[in-house]
Amino acid sequence: EALLYVKETTGATVATCGFKITGELSEEDPQIDYRNAETVVLHGGESFRLSRRRNFAWNRLYDRAVFDKLRYNTSVTFYEDLVLYLEMMCTVPGYSEAFCMVPLYYYFQRETSLMKTFTMKSYSTAADAMLDLYEKLYTHEYSWVVLDQAAKAVLASWAKGKGSDEWNSGKADIDALRHRALAHLAAKPPGLATKQ
User: Fold this and answer.
1) Is 164 left (phi over 0), alpha (psi -120 to 50) or beta?
2) 32-46, 139-153, 154-168: the lowest-pLDDT one
3) In contact, 86 and 44? CB cutoff 8 Å
4) What number is the average pLDDT over the span 89-108?
5) Of 159, 180, 181, which is closest to residue 170 (Cα–Cα)?
């Protein structure tokens, strides 16, 4: 109801709210006056400034038309929502996002959840998908955001894997991804100068 209100009053492509991570199922739900909460609307790649910590599947309400051409990448099991978000931000005509700046969503995280048990392979698969997306969107004004996130996923994969049981079998793949990301960064993607 709250996100529908935000979306209808702003006309944004996507309505997004803040969230609170909790490990307690019994946590009380406070009554929040979302109709008077601060809401910020950003357009295109600018939306990433606020969405970088909110780009999950579960705290958003989308225009149905967004999914006429876009789908989740089923080969990615970690950061799949980020991969979709980056493509959406760059390819949906007139994309805009309304951010309700209060936590309307409570995210319960189990100790055995995917977010708590991700692996080097989880990161490297996401990095590979983001690099593929960057290569597809290279000329886009905000392609640098995609490459930036891909590079971070490569680094996270390296850090997660080093010294683990996965390291010997996965190191060659991580090296290949790292060289691929570095080559793109050295080529200075469009829009990177604007960012700096």
Assistant:
1) beta
2) 154-168
3) no
4) 85
5) 159
Cα three-residue angle 100-113-71, rounded to 5 degrees: 60
pLDDT of residue 116: 60
Token pair for 158 = 């390296």
Look at residue 168 and tell me whether its pLDDT is greater than 90: no
The amino acid at 45:
G
Cross-strand partners of 107: 21
Residues with Cβ within 8 Å of 44's Cβ and at least 6 positions away in sequence, in order, are: 89, 90, 95, 96, 141, 142
Q: Percent of the chain at pLDDT above 70? A: 83
Are the C-beta atoms of residues 70 and 84 closer than 8 Å to each other?
A: yes
pTM over 0.85: no
Cα-based angle 6, 41, 79 (whole degrees, multiple of 5):
85
Contacts of 88 (CB under 8 A, 6+ apart): 14, 66, 70, 95
DSSP per-residue string spanning 127-195: HHHHHHHHHHSTTSTTHHHHHHHHHHHHHHHHHHHTTSTTHHHHHHHHHHHHHHHHHHHHT--TTHHHH
The 3-state DSSP class for residue 107 equals strand
